């Protein structure tokens, strides 16, 4: 997949979401663990679910899913 190299090159070139926002339809949580995600703040990801989201709604969902 080309997501990681693409995001790395955006960061290398200094392209920020405020300049050119990117929406990804195929980037996953596992891929993002291998790169510095700070430069990605403000870009969008659709289609995938990120279990690691640290907020009360997601924690409740994960807890209910595991109980199911």
Automatic annotation (TrEMBL):
It comes from the Bacteria. Coiled coil: none annotated. This is Urea ABC transporter substrate-binding protein.
């Amino acid at each position: 997949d080309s997501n990681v190299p693409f995001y790395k090159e955006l960061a290398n070139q200094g392209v920020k979401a405020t300049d050119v926002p990117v929406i990804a339809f195929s980037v996953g949580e596992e891929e993002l663990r291998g790169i510095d995600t700070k430069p990605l703040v403000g870009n969008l990801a659709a289609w995938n679910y990120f279990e690691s989201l640290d907020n009360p709604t997601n924690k409740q969902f994960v807890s209910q899913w595991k109980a199911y």
